[in-house]
């Protein structure tokens, strides 16, 4: 049972990171054209980090789906851990993207030609909120239902 | 094939020959290799051994990559740098994968005459094979070939030295084969890695393609035009992503199938354990 809980969390985190990386690419890069996968003048360290997450994101989604399928056929899925893991992975990636990649490493900004403060605050606060809710879901012990209000 | 005159210092020097004669020679070589693989498989079947048809199909596809790689840049009328990436994708991404799916070493070991088989066994059991087919070496070989071919000025030095250019291509194809054999090969490995190790290797090699493509855009090689480098870099990322995700699906599908067999086995044993106690109590041989 505990292995099912642990693996549910793991599948969730992988899926969350992968989905966030994937949506970041599809929505902002390809649909909205707010930023490109490469902007001239980007430092090399940021390019390495971005490339790594692009490659890892896809494989994380695939690994998450197969792990979920395995949990389901064994009847071991712990849904709250799974959802908490997705939120953790999603929020964690968004915070990493917003704080480390965009600010520290100087990768592309979220959008160009507009005041960035609102975008930055929204992006990072949404990521932080998802991470906190996810951690609460994952860390709450599985069998303390009666204690919760 | 006339691109070289337009860009004297560019990556067009690394392009393998695309003339009609070269394509015909490659086609001949591919036919010969396919014939050998098909004859070996038929020999096995005649002997009563099973040899799946999809492995023969993979072997023919691998041989077919040679003429296709030579013919594509002219057929698609790509500029020189994009042409180089096209050849790279066919020879270093597609060819190794379909080759290792055809289990060439197993086929050779089963059909070669005894002396040659001993020689091949000594090679695949040797320390060299063991070292090359380990995760760090596989990644280092794969990444180094990419970096040297696309990012360093080495290809300028290779201008007018077709033999050295061929050596670099051979290095990349062999590195690709080591990587593919490690990740999804059908031949048994000296130390078979678990699915997690295979996935980490896939992530690192896929990331290397992404990073090299981004660095190409950041620092376009001298002698190339920007649209050409941009198209080539995007093709590198796209092919790297498709190949990487495909290989990850293959690795995980095998893990899932193996898990299913284990699970069915466990359930059978559990069912037997439930069913057997009354039987064993009756049978005097149970003690």
Low-confidence stretches of chain A: 144-149
Q: What order do the helices and strands of chain A follow?
A: HHHH
Question: Major sheet of chain B: size, sense and barrel closure?
Answer: none
Which range best describes the helical content of chain B: under 10%, 10-25%, 25-40%, 40-55%, 55-70% or over 70%? over 70%
Largest interface: A-B, 22 and 28 residues
Q: What structural class is derived from the secondary structure elements of chain A?
A: mainly alpha
How big a fraction of the residues of chain B is strand?
A: under 5%
Record keyword descriptors for this entry.
heterodimer, A: 149 residues, mainly alpha, B: mainly alpha, 79% helix, disordered N terminus
Question: How would you describe the overall organization of this protein?
Answer:
The complex is a heterodimer of chains A (149) and B (287). Chain A is built from 4 helices and no strands. In chain A, helix 1 crosses helix 2 (44-74), helix 1 crosses helix 3 (79-104) and helix 3 (79-104) runs antiparallel to helix 4 (116-139). Chain A is an all-alpha fold and 149 residues long. In chain A, 74% of the residues lie in helices and 0% in strands. Chain A has one domain (2-143). Chain A starts with a helix and ends in a 10-residue tail after the last helix. Chain B has one domain. Chain B has 12 helices and no strands. Chain B has helices spanning 3-6, 20-47, 53-75, 80-101, 104-111, 114-125, 127-132, 135-150, 154-157, 162-184, 195-218, 226-282. In chain B, helix 2 (20-47) packs across helix 5. The relative contact order of chain B is 0.11.
